[in-house]
Write a structure and sequence with these properties.
Elements: H1 2-10, H2 12-16, H3 20-32, H4 41-74, H5 79-102
Helix pairs in contact: 3-4
């Protein structure tokens, strides 16, 4: 039982696409094949769903990390960079306007 269950949980890509319906079918099949007792079905289902959630989170973190690295290498401005520059421009515009008021042109 443990071997089959562990194999199911170690399938990374399968865990990513694991829906509750698919997990329920897997658990039903395991019970039918007497790989797990009926009373353990809910626990196994919860573990399968948790593994799927964890795999999706890990993939999301990996994608974000890779995208950030690619953006840094490509020297593309991010939203935070643009916002910081917009603030600096606004501050400079205020200073210019104040100077123009003090010294007519």
């Amino acid at each position: 039982m443990a071997g089959l269950l562990e194999n199911l949980m170690e399938i990374g890509l399968g865990a990513l696409t694991l829906t509750r319906e698919k997990a329920e079918r897997i658990v039903e099949q395991l019970v039918k094949l007497k790989e797990i007792p009926q009373e353990k079905g809910h626990e196994v289902l919860q573990r399968l769903m948790e593994k799927g959630r964890e795999a999706r989170e890990e993939l999301g973190q990996l994608v974000r990390r890779e995208v950030n690295e690619a953006l840094e290498k490509a020297a593309i401005a991010r939203t935070a960079d643009i916002e910081r520059l917009e603030q600096r421009i606004a501050a400079l515009e205020e200073r210019v306007a104040a100077l123009e008021k003090g010294h007519p042109g």
